[in-house]
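DM from R.C. (forwarded with permission)

"hey, sorry to bug you on a friday — could you get me a structure for this? deadline for the figure draft is monday and I only need the backbone to look sensible"
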Amino acid sequence: MHRERLGLPTLGVNIDHIATIRQARRTVEPDPIAGAVLAELGGADGITAHLREDRRHIQERDVRLLRQTVRTHLNLEMAATDEMVAIALDIKPDYVTLVPERREEVTTEGGLDIAGQIARIGEVVDKLQSADIPVSLFIDAEPAQIEASVKVQAKFIELHTGRYAEAKDEKSRKQELDVLAAGCEQAMKAGLRINAGHGLTYWNVYPVACLPGMEELNIGHTIISRAVLVGMERAVQEMKLAMRGKF
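My reply, with the result:
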């Protein structure tokens, strides 16, 4: 599922926004399942989908079909609710990423507060991992959140790269990259495996891909946006080049 050694990370392609286009007209196209197949043909190392409580884009049927179709690995992003836990236990994705979720937000706005809800998150992590579904926690690169992720015994963390991606100038961007690097160092020392994502594009991904210990980058919006113009396979291929500083 993930590389067992340090080196350049793999690419998980988030297909949510294929479903966003479909749901805008409440029709049957474009099909996120077909998008996942094309992403894998283009070199995606995994497929990510976020089943939100309000079902604004990905639907439960999509996740079930993805489970039957994806040949790499399927990462199910979800809130830490009883409903979502039950769905995950039934579908059995290759791993689950727990994310914060507010109905009024346009997209996920920050990391999950593990430190503030250790008992609840610990319960969810235990239920999933007892069923052989590894859990990743989408968190900000803050020492307290990384420490809490260790306490709840998650296998992975996914560092929220939104602040880095939204930085307005090179100085701010460097500061945010340093925060991510410090988070990677702390996580590696604690035995956590590291993914990252949110707001990454073809033009800012390379420095994050170079962070020590980074195993996988989960990227969606920029790939789907480019795929509308050049096709999914090419968009994925170009992202893999960008992750290697060759785009």
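R.C.: lifesaver. The two ends are 25 Å apart (CA to CA).
me: no worries. Residues 170-190 form the longest helix (21 residues).
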